[in-house]
Amino acid sequence: MTRRDLLVIAPALLLPSCSSAPPGKTEPEKPVEPVTGLHALYQMYTSARAWAQDLQILRYSSIDISEVQRQPGKAAAWQVVFVSPALSKMRTWTFSVYEASATLHQGIFSDAAANWSGGGKPFTIQAAKIDTDAVWQTALQHAADYNAQNPKITISYTLELDRGADPMWRVIWGRSAGNSSFSVLVDASTGEFVQILH
Asked: In this structure, are residues 182 and 170 in contact, taking their beta carbons and an 8 Å threshold?
């Protein structure tokens, strides 16, 4: 083997040592990232289609997990109640990026189906066109002062059809609408601001 041959293969010999971690050391795990509402919803919808083909959304909401760093327009976990008019059943699915507890697992999981009498106002997934990152930006345009005065408050999201023809995203300053004194409604189909709720 000539010196020239050695120079040609030398870089290739060095590659494995550059790409592998030293013995006994592992790459640090990347922190889990929260996800947008529609990202989680579509994954749960795909999973739930094995249960029923005529799925409609009755309620959808975010779940805060303190171990996961918050990001605007995203949440660590999401929970949806799907209904099947054909089966007269309802069933809850949950999506989480973090193994938080015995009842809040990482990944997608569901509860057992329960009877549904037809109450509430379910809607199809196609009606939810605007994702929560865009919804957050719209809400913030109308809540900048309140948000600046409450920088550490948990932001929650719900999606329901309780007024008008389109489902509404509700951006809540607080863990739930019941314990919040400020929230913003945004149309989930058009992305337009609807109103501020106190």
From this structure: no
